[in-house]
């Protein structure tokens, strides 16, 4: 899945324009990718001039349940 780093994002909106799924929206002033709409095409990452979008392993950001 893809995520946006809010610390480097300049809110230029290029990724929103590039996303074919309207998966990127502004939530509480921060550009955010909705993982339910995102199809992992990578178009947003390609257009981001600031390197603010990157692909992460879902398992790395979803906390594992305690056993
Ligand atoms: S293209 Fe990059 S810098 Fe521009 S709004 Fe999207 S994530 Fe932020
Ligand atoms: S990877 Fe593709 S579908 Fe997902 S947010 Fe980026 S442009 Fe949209």
Summarize this structure briefly.
The protein has a single domain (2-60), classed as 2-Layer Sandwich (Alpha-Beta Plaits). It has three helices and four strands, in the order βαββαβα. It has helices at 14-18, 43-47, 58-61; strands spanning 2-4, 24-27, 30-33, 53-55.
Write structural notes for this entry.
- The chain has 67 residues and is of the alpha+beta class.
- Helices cover 21% and strands 21% of the residues.
- The chain is built from three helices and four strands.
- The relative contact order is 0.31.
- The mean pLDDT is 93.
- The structure holds iron/sulfur cluster (2 copies).
- Residues 4, 9-15, 31, 47-48, 50, 52-53 line the site of one iron/sulfur cluster.
What are the defining features of this structure?
67 residues; alpha+beta; Alpha-Beta Plaits; two-stranded antiparallel ribbon; 3 helices; 4 strands; 21% helix; 21% strand; globular; binds iron/sulfur cluster
Chart the SSEs and their pairings.
Blueprint: E1 2-4, H1 14-18, E2 24-27, E3 30-33, H2 43-47, E4 53-55, H3 58-61
Antiparallel strand pairs: 1-4, 2-3
The structure holds iron/sulfur cluster (2 copies).
The site of one iron/sulfur cluster has 14 residues, from α2.
Please give the CATH class.
Answer: Alpha Beta
Total number of domains? 1
Q: Number of helix segments?
A: 3
Low-confidence stretches: none
The largest pleated sheet is described as: 2 strands, antiparallel
Number of E-type strands: 4
Helical content, roughly? 10-25%
Structural class by helix and strand composition: alpha+beta
Mean pLDDT: 93
Q: How is the CATH topology named?
A: Alpha-Beta Plaits
Return the string of H and E elements: EHEEHEH
**What strand order characterises the main sheet?**
1-4
